[in-house]
Amino acid sequence: MAKNSKDLTLSSSMELDAFIDKLHKAPAPISSQGMGRILFALDATASRELAWDHACHLQNEMFIEAGKLGGLQLKLCYFRGFNQFTSSDWLNQSDQLLNIMNGVSCAPGHTQIAKVLDLALAETRTRKIQAVIFIGDSMEESLDHLCQQAGELGLMSTPVFIFQEGNELVAKRAMKEIARLSGGAYHAFNTRSADLLRQLLTAVAVYAAGGKKALQHFSKGKDQAVSHLLEQLK
After folding, report:
1. For position 6, what pLDDT does the model report?
2. pLDDT at residue number 149
């Protein structure tokens, strides 16, 4: 007897729950050398001030979900003000990351995406980063230089996942190209798409922890945007 759509949805949900449960129960790596690593970068310039509290809430939840998966290290970096660029140590406890994020405030200044990509290159040369996440809304730098950096990350198989707040066209073009050249993915969001961004950020954490196959499992039953994220990966 053919299953109806309700049965199929239930089956997909059960499969996802079972998969995530296996990830939760997976043994911790013997050495930190085996842990997946995410560089999490944020634009903290004044243009994002109105949405900052909302964005922090979403990003906090991403850290919590990443912590549930196990086997992940995260480094937070952000830029703001006049030439201010800050990065944390590599951390594997969500409460440490939450404390840093909650202490961040926005300040007027230009974007410093090149510094984010420079940091990603330096870190992955030392030990591989499985994913770079960048959340921002604008771009005020040389696109040629950013594309060169993104291409280098692509050669090292370090994808950049970019989530653009809003739809500013110059930034959109640049961010899509950075994602493409690095082998990553791009998606736009706004303050009304909280659940979508939550799913997308968690999807990247799943990818960093378990690779493309894990992301394929995670995408079942999720928003179509999660599947689109998967389709963009090389």
Report:
1. 47
2. 97
Predicted TM-score of the model (pTM): 0.81
Query: Is 91 among the domain residues?
Result: yes
pLDDT tens-digit map of 40-65 = 998 988 777 666 666 666 666 666 65
Q: Supply the CATH number for residue 120's domain.
A: 3.40.50.410
Residue 111 lies in a domain: yes
Report DSSP letters for the chain, one per residue.
-PPPHHHHHHHHHHHHHHHHHHHHHSPPPSSGGGSEEEEEEEE-BGGGHHHHHHHHHHHHHHHHHHHHH-SEEEEEEEEETTTEEEE---B--HHHHHHHHHT---B-----HHHHHHHHHHHHHHS--SEEEEEES---S-HHHHHHHHHHHHHTT--EEEEEES--HHHHHHHHHHHHHHT-EEEEE-TT-HHHHHHHHHHHHHHHHHHHHHHHHHTTTS-HHHHHHHHH--
Indicate the pLDDT class of residue 23, thresholds 50, 70 and 90. Answer: very low
Residue 149 belongs to domain spanning: 34-232
Average of per-residue pLDDT values in the chain: 80
- Position 90 in a domain: yes
